[in-house]
Amino acid sequence: MAERGVDVHPEVMIPLTSHVNELKAERAKLERVGKRVMAEKGVDLHYMF
Predict the structure, then answer these.
(1) Which of 19, 31, 47, 49 is 20 to 30 A off residue 9, Cα-Cα?
(2) How far is the C-alpha of 4 from the C-alpha of 12, rounded, in Å?
(3) Smallest Cα–Cα separation from 45: which of 28, 35, 27?
(4) What backbone torsions phi and psi does residue 11 show, to the nearest 5 degrees?
(5) 30 exposure class (CB count in 10 Å sphere: 0-12, 13-18, 19+)
(6) CA-to-CA distance for 7 and 29, rounded, in angstroms?
(7) How far apart are CA 25 and CA 8, in angstroms?
(8) Eight-state DSSP code of residue 3
(9) One MF term in GO for this entry (predicted)?
(10) DSSP-H helix ranges across 1-49
(11) Bridge partner residues of 48 (DSSP)
(12) Cα-flanking dihedrals φ and ψ of residue 12, to 5°?
């Protein structure tokens, strides 16, 4: 949608985490993947966790 010029505001929700350290690890993974995908697509999205 962002490639089409639509103003998007994604929010990532990480379910079923039992400890804050698990949440931190999952967030780090998602941020790495997000940066890679945005670079491949040539877009810069701001997203929330």
Answers:
(1) 19
(2) 21
(3) 35
(4) -130, 120
(5) middle
(6) 25
(7) 25
(8) G
(9) catalytic activity
(10) 20-41
(11) 11
(12) -95, 130
Q: Which residue ranges make up each domain of the chain? A: 2-41
* pTM, rounded to two decimals: 0.70
* Backbone CA torsion sign across 24, 27, 33, 34: negative
What pLDDT does residue 29 have?
95
| One-letter amino acid of 3 | E
Residues, the chain, total? 49
Enter the DSSP assignment of 30: H
pLDDT score at 13: 87
